[in-house]
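User: I'm putting together notes for a lab meeting next week and I want to include a structural view of one of the chains we've been expressing. I don't have a solved structure, so I'd like a prediction I can at least talk through. The sequence is below, exactly as it appears in our construct file.
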Amino acid sequence: MKNISNFGIFTVLLISSLTIMVGTVIAPSLGNIVSNLNFKLSPGLLITLPALGVVVFAPFIGGF
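Assistant: Thanks for the context. Below is the predicted structure for the 64-residue chain, given as structure tokens.
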């Protein structure tokens, strides 16, 4: 088993907080974003898609 350096642990913690920060920043202004971008699909996708990207690509990145 490989040991993870402190820098690696710090990097993983920062990356894992990105999806939470996206939701925190976008959620209060979601109505304005939808009206300005003329986004016809479900506005919740703007918050869900970054988290879905992390879930989909995590196994590939974890294999390295």
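A couple of points you could mention at the meeting. The chain has four helices and no strands. The CA atoms of residues 45 and 52 lie 10 Å apart.

User: Perfect, that's what I needed.
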